[in-house]
Write a structure and sequence with these properties.
about 35% helix; 7 helices; alpha/beta; binds adenosine-5'-diphosphate; 6-stranded mixed sheet; binds magnesium ion
């Protein structure tokens, strides 16, 4: 089943950035997008994940044209089916890690699995305030928060950027297991070529186009 289908996406700011990009992603697939800083990776991720309407082209998630949906349906789609992991993680700072997870899980009608916290290595810090955690721990809390929602599509922009190599590998293993066990799919932006190669396909963003490597 196709979870994501993007057709002829183009986008410009005061200059052209993305040019005629098409992409398809099926259940249990993952794609990695690599490319130099400023090439448009984050912009493409925002367009694919319902946050930015492209100047041209169409994005279908689960068979629905998302930029044709009303805002209410879009909010529901984001809350239940999309897992967005971006560089700034927007945790609620005055609250504990657990409370941050609880909010997301309750909104999506899901429960928090202790095995997930164990695999992310945050089970022992879960009652602490977010502000007491290291950057890497906060990043893993934000990943736990997203996976607790049980999304069908994950969009991750440098999700392992703050993590040491072995923790980054652990997190990627967790993502790939998750995709298999939940029939989900992932679009990953990364600088790490080794982690990129573990995805089903790797694309390089270059002069506004995606080139499969
Ligand atoms: N909201 C915006 N308004 C104007 N220019 C933007 C905006 N967002 C990004 N850009 C520009 O678009 C280019 C691509 O940015 P981005 O998509 O973040 O690239 P990457 O993620 O590959 O580093 C950059 O030159 C950036 O300055
Ligand atoms: Mg970026």
């Amino acid at each position: 089943m196709t979870l994501l289908k993007a057709t002829s996406l183009s986008h410009h700011y005061d200059y052209p950035l993305l040019n005629d990009i098409s992409l398809e992603l099926k259940e249990r697939e993952s794609i990695a997008i690599v490319g130099v800083s400023g090439s448009g990776k984050s912009t493409l991720l925002h367009i694919l994940s319902s946050l930015l309407r492209p100047n041209e082209g169409r994005v279908e998630l689960f068979g629905e044209d998302i930029y044709g949906l009303d805002e209410k349906k879009l909010v529901k789609l984001r809350r239940n089916d999309l897992g967005l992991i971006y560089q700034s993680h927007y945790l609620f700072k005055g609250f504990s890690a657990y409370e941050n997870l609880e909010v997301a899980a309750i909104l999506a009608n899901e429960t928090i699995e202790s095995s997930l916290l164990q695999r992310l290595g945050i089970d022992h810090v879960i009652t602490q305030k977010v502000t007491e955690l290291s950057g890497g721990q906060q990043q893993r809390v934000s990943i736990a928060r997203v996976l607790s929602k049980k999304p069908r599509l994950i969009f991750a922009d440098e999700p392992t950027g703050n993590l040491d190599h072995s923790t980054a590998q652990e997190v990627m293993d967790l993502f790939h297991d998750y995709l298999q066990s939940h029939n989900a799919a992932m679009v990953l932006v990364t600088h790490d070529e080794a982690l990129a190669k573990e995805c089903s396909r790797v694309y390089r963003m270059r002069e506004g186009s995606l080139v499969e490597v």
